[in-house]
Amino acid sequence: MLVLPHHTDHIALAQPSLVGDAWATEVVPRLPATLAAQARTLKAFQRVRGLATPHDLLRGVLAYVLGPLSTRRLGAWAVLVGVADISEAAWRTRLRASNPWLLWLLSALVSTAAPAAPLGVRPAGRVLLMDASCLGQPGGTGDDWRLHLAYDFTAGRLGQVQVPDRRGGEHLGRYHWQPGEVIVGDRGYGYRRSVALAVRQHADVILRIHPATFPLETEAGQPFAVLRWLRHRGEAQREWHGWCRWEGQRDAVRLVAATLPPAAARQARRRQRRKAQKAGRTLTAPTRAVAGWLLVITPLEAAPWSTA
């Protein structure tokens, strides 16, 4: 735990919703009705032993997070407000066992009504939207932690959450999915290994790519020039069928391309120019050309997943 340079008692006591009648009147009514049942199902609350209800366990978890409190101070706080009288080691055990339950609670609180048919298509499995972001901490560099999320678009709720340190890069190998599911990701996941990994697990991907980091080849095994294909006159939306290769595995893919609206294309070029200046390099002509397009790779068949 971080050693703060100031007195923290006022922080721990400044959470009125965790003590007194406010907890029962302001917080509990907003919690899912199945909170207690899920706590037992997910093994966060298996025995009473000093904690009367799963709601009291949640109060302790929130106090630990919002305090900020060590487990020793959490034990003292719980005794003073009448939540529980258990040891520091018992609190650590309870907190560790609460992870799956808290993930379920987070998903339940932010969930929305499930869409009738995502994109007009009903896939065999879920549609999962993958993304990651950086999290900082006081005194850190701003990217001390990585937040990896898998949003279940079909159900309208979070599916998976991971928070490793800064060495936890974006890749599909850190997630779990089932055959028939469709994984959607941005260019952070747009590599040939992502396609190969999904195909091996009988799943599908829809990934935004950059031609420089996603080599393609024709049926005959010859390199496919994406920029030349984009420069040819043609439809604003177009697609090409070919192959990608990764570690000896060759997979059939579709390259779907669509021109961005003029305003979006200008914004994309400005973003690329700022990124290049920050890195101390010159923005190349191919990068400027690609910035005007949305390029997506997928092994999904055209029916029912059309270009549009």
Structure description:
It is a single chain. The protein has 308 residues and is of the alpha+beta class. It has three domains: 9-110, no CATH class; 114-185, no CATH class; 213-308, no CATH class. It is built from eleven helices and eight strands. It has an eight-stranded mixed beta sheet. α5 packs across α6 (88-97). The N and C termini lie far apart (50 Å).
What number of structural domains do the residues give? 3
Q: What count of helical segments does DSSP give? A: 11
- Biggest sheet features: 8 strands, mixed
Order of helices and strands: HHHHHHHEEEEHEHEEHHE
Strand order of the largest sheet: 3-2-1-4-5-8-7-6
The Rg value, from CA coordinates, equals: 25 Å
Mean pLDDT across the residues is 85
Oligomer: single chain
Quote the distance from N terminus to C terminus: 50 Å
Give the overall shape, derived from the CA principal axes.
elongated
